[in-house]
Specification:
It comes from Halovibrio variabilis. The structure is a single chain. The protein contains nine helices and 14 strands. Strand 3 (92-98), helix 5 (100-117) and strand 4 (121-127) form a beta-alpha-beta unit. The chain folds into three domains: 1-86, Arc Repressor Mutant, subunit A; 92-161 and 262-290, 3-Layer(aba) Sandwich (D-Maltodextrin-Binding Protein, domain 2); 163-256, D-Maltodextrin-Binding Protein, domain 2 (3-Layer(aba) Sandwich). It is an alpha/beta fold. The protein has helices at 4-16, 19-26, 30-44, 60-87, 100-117, 169-174, 219-227, 237-246, 275-287; strands spanning 49-51, 56-58, 92-98, 121-127, 141-146, 154-160, 163-168, 190-191, 196-201, 204-209, 214-215, 233-236, 249-252, 262-267.
C-alpha cells in the first residue's frame, strides 16, 4: 500500500491526541507527521481531522476511516505475534484433564514424553470421569470421548472410538445372543456411568435405556464383570480389543454400532494459541497411534 506511512501517522495522531506526540512516538518531526496526514486526506479526497491550535477532532469520515485502519494495524500485530509464537518453545504451567482410564493408559505416557522434550514446562494432569468445565476450572486442554456437544471450544480428533456390546462365552451359554435392540430388555445389562446405550439405526443416532442389577462408574470394574459372565456391557474398543481378539468376549449387535464417535483434544478458542497448547495437541495427534491397542482406529 503506497500510503501506509501516512495511515500510520494518522492513526498515531488520533491515538496520542497531538501531532507532536505522534512525531515523538514515530521518531520524526511534527511537520513530517502533518505533511503525511495532509497527503492522506488529499489521496482520499476527504478531511479526516478538524485542527485548531488547542486540539484535533475527528470528522465523520475520519472516525470511520480510523476504525478500519485500527483493524489493519491489529492484524499486522497479530501476524507478527503469530510468527513469533511459531518459533517459541512451550513454557509455563500446562493443565490437562482427561477421563481416568484412557488418560492414565494412553494420554499420560505421551504427555510425559512431551515433557521430556520440553523440561522447562510444568505439567498438571487431572483424571476424572465427571464433566469438567474447561475454562471455569482453569484447564488448558481436555481429552473428551464420544459425540461432542456444540460449544465455542476448539476440538481436534485424536482417534476413533468404537463402543461394543459384549458378553462372555459363559454368559452366552445361559442366554441367547441378541439380534435386535428390543431384545436387550431380555438380558442382564451391566450399567456404567450412563444408563442409556448409544446405537445407530437407519443412519440415525439412537439411545436405548437399559436396566440391570449391576452398576458402577468404573470402566475396569465393568470390564471385569462382563468377563465373569455377569451380563452384557457397552465398552469402548480400548477396553475390550484384546478380549475380543482372544474370543473371551463376544461382540453382539454390531450392525447397530454407532460410528460417529471419537477421542478429542479440546481447548478454548484464542486469537493466538499458546505454544504449549498447540505443540502438545500436535504431539498427541501425531503419536496417539503408538500407544493404542493395534486394532484401535486412529
Amino acid at each position: 500500500m503506497q500510503h501506509w506511512s501516512s495511515i500510520e501517522a494518522f492513526v498515531e495522531v488520533v491515538r496520542l491526541g497531538t501531532f507532536s506526540a505522534a512525531a515523538r512516538h514515530l521518531k520524526v518531526s511534527t511537520s513530517h507527521i502533518s505533511r503525511l496526514v495532509s497527503q492522506l486526506e488529499n489521496q482520499l479526497g476527504v478531511q479526516l481531522l478538524y485542527r485548531t491550535t488547542r486540539q484535533i477532532r475527528l470528522t465523520d469520515a475520519g472516525a470511520i476511516y480510523v476504525e478500519h485502519c485500527r483493524h489493519l494495524f491489529d492484524g499486522l500485530r497479530d501476524a507478527e505475534q503469530a510468527i513469533s509464537e511459531l518459533q517459541s518453545t512451550p513454557n509455563g504451567l500446562l493443565k490437562l484433564t482427561s477421563a481416568t482410564t484412557f488418560g492414565e493408559r494412553f494420554i499420560a505416557p505421551l504427555v510425559n514424553d512431551f515433557q521430556c522434550l520440553h523440561p522447562q514446562l510444568d505439567v498438571h494432569m487431572h483424571f476424572t470421569n465427571r464433566p469438567v468445565e474447561l475454562i471455569e476450572e482453569g484447564f488448558d486442554i481436555a481429552i473428551r470421548m464420544g459425540v461432542l456437544k456444540d460449544s465455542s471450544l476448539i476440538a481436534r480428533r485424536l482417534c476413533d472410538r468404537r463402543e461394543y456390546i459384549v458378553g462372555s462365552q459363559a454368559y452366552f451359554r445361559q442366554a441367547p445372543r441378541p439380534h435386535t435392540l428390543g431384545e436387550l430388555s431380555q438380558h442382564r445389562c451391566l450399567i456404567g456411568s450412563r444408563p442409556n446405550w448409544l446405537f445407530e439405526m437407519n443412519g440415525q443416532r439412537r439411545e436405548v435405556r437399559v436396566e440391570g442389577c449391576w452398576t458402577s462408574n468404573s470402566g475396569p470394574a465393568l470390564l471385569d464383570a462382563a468377563r465373569k459372565g455377569l451380563g452384557l456391557a457397552q465398552l469402548p474398543d480400548y477396553y475390550v480389543a484384546p478380549y475380543l481378539a482372544s474370543g473371551e468376549l463376544v461382540a453382539v449387535l454390531e450392525p447397530f454400532q454407532h460410528h460417529d464417535t471419537a477421542v478429542w483434544a479440546v481447548y478454548p478458542r484464542h486469537r493466538h494459541l499458546s505454544p504449549k497448547i498447540r505443540q502438545l495437541v500436535d504431539y498427541l495427534v501425531a503419536n496417539i497411534g503408538s500407544v493404542l491397542p493395534s486394532n484401535t482406529l486412529v
